[in-house]
């Protein structure tokens, strides 16, 4: 008879454990901001090609283009056009533009006349699946290097999308990739201008 009284509690506990196990937990990445940097002095930036760790070969360029457009739309910083950035990379002779050295960054200052350079790593871009549920996921890390010394003055990461509890229960396909990409970029821009 006693088990009948405790049975609802056991069911509730099991449900909560399953719910917590099914939720995607991300510890987040610590952000970095150089407190001695005067970000108000940054008037122009060059966004270098992003390192693409995803399985989609074109994803890095798509996300970089979206980031450049949204950064330019803030009207807080002038963003050099991609052609100018490529010209600067070529003139400086940067072998791996996704991961420039401090010396290469300082040389870009003379060639492109920018105050900072932004580099990025696209860690995830695509569909994730769990059972019958699937959803889009984007994970992006950015860093800003000031061109005077080539040192990192800001870094942040964001991951958006993924399979939610609603996706698991209803089998929906999650948010469109464009929406998830915009969410990630908005999150990073909020971090940058915070």
From TrEMBL:
Alphabetical list of PROSITE patterns matching this protein: PROKAR_LIPOPROTEIN (PS51257)
Ranges annotated as spanning the membrane: none
InterPro entries with a match to the protein in the record: GNA1162-like (IPR008517)
Gene3D superfamilies for the chain: ABC-type transport auxiliary lipoprotein component
Matching Pfam families: GNA1162-like (PF05643)
Keywords attached to this entry: Signal
Gene source species: Trichloromonas acetexigens
Signal peptide: 1-24
Protein name: Penicillin-binding protein activator LpoB
Domain of life: Bacteria
């Amino acid at each position: 008879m006693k088990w009948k009284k405790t049975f609802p509690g056991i069911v509730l506990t099991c449900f909560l454990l399953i719910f917590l196990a099914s939720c995607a937990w991300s510890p987040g990445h610590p952000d970095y901001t150089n407190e001695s940097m005067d970000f108000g002095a940054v008037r122009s930036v060059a966004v270098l090609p992003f390192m693409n760790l995803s399985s989609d070969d074109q994803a890095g360029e798509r996300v970089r283009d979206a980031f450049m457009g949204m950064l330019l739309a803030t009207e807080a910083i002038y963003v050099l056009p991609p052609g100018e950035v490529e010209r600067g990379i070529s003139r400086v002779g940067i072998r791996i533009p996704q991961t420039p050295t401090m010396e290469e960054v300082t040389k870009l200052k003379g060639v492109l006349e920018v105050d900072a350079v932004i580099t990025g790593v696209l860690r995830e871009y695509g569909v994730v699946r769990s059972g019958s549920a699937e959803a889009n996921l984007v994970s992006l890390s950015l860093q800003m290097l000031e061109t005077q010394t080539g040192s990192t003055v800001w870094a942040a990461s964001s991951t958006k999308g993924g399979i939610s509890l609603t996706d698991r229960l209803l089998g929906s396909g999650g948010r469109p990739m464009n929406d998830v990409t915009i969410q990630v970029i908005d999150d990073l821009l909020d971090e940058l201008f915070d």
